[in-house]
Write a structure and sequence with these properties.
single chain, 165 residues, alpha+beta, 60s Ribosomal Protein L30, Chain: A, two-stranded antiparallel sheet, 3 helices, rod-shaped
Length: 165
């Protein structure tokens, strides 16, 4: 009888342990979503019959909309291309899109993006490009291609995009 009680006690203990421990849960490994690749940083080529525009992007300092010396050279090259097209009786329409990094409020970034686009437009107009060829828009911080703070300087920019006529 003692052997039977011992056997029942051991079996009960084993059954209790198995019910408490149970089968291990499946661990689902979530793979991190890779960040989107950065946009193509090569200048956009606009096909204009006889004239090929290769308008480059300009960048800005944090919380600034002033044109830097190196970016002034880029804008000069962009203006030269647009003026050559105008001499060939072609006046391509270009949208200047201002961008910001995500630091700051959405409203502030929209306004700063617009000031950057207007600064680039003003600079091109001073170089002789017709103001009627240029439109401006702000994307604020809505079109980010990176979320890494050490890469935000690439987000603070103005892009020059052709508009369909």
């Amino acid at each position: 009888m003692k052997a039977t009680v011992k056997l029942l006690t051991v079996l009960t203990g084993v059954v209790l342990m198995l019910t408490m421990v149970g089968c291990p849960k499946k661990v689902i490994k979530e793979e991190p979503i890779p960040p989107p690749p950065p946009p193509d940083t090569t200048p956009e080529i606009i096909g204009v019959p006889g004239i090929e525009l290769n308008l480059a992007t300009v960048h800005f300092e944090f919380d600034k909309f002033a044109i830097r010396a190196g970016d002034a050279d880029i804008l000069k090259d962009n203006a030269d291309q647009l003026l050559k097209a105008a001499e060939a009786d072609q006046k391509p329409m270009v949208m200047i899109e201002g961008h910001c990094c995500p630091i700051g409020t959405a409203e502030y970034n929209m306004a700063l993006g617009q000031r950057r686009a207007e600064a680039a437009k003003s600079y091109l107009v001073k170089l002789g490009v017709g103001a009627s060829q240029l439109t401006t828009i702000s994307s604020g911080d809505e079109m980010l291609f990176t979320s890494k703070p050490d890469e935000y300087e690439m987000i603070r920019r103005c892009e020059f995009k052709p508009e369909e006529e």
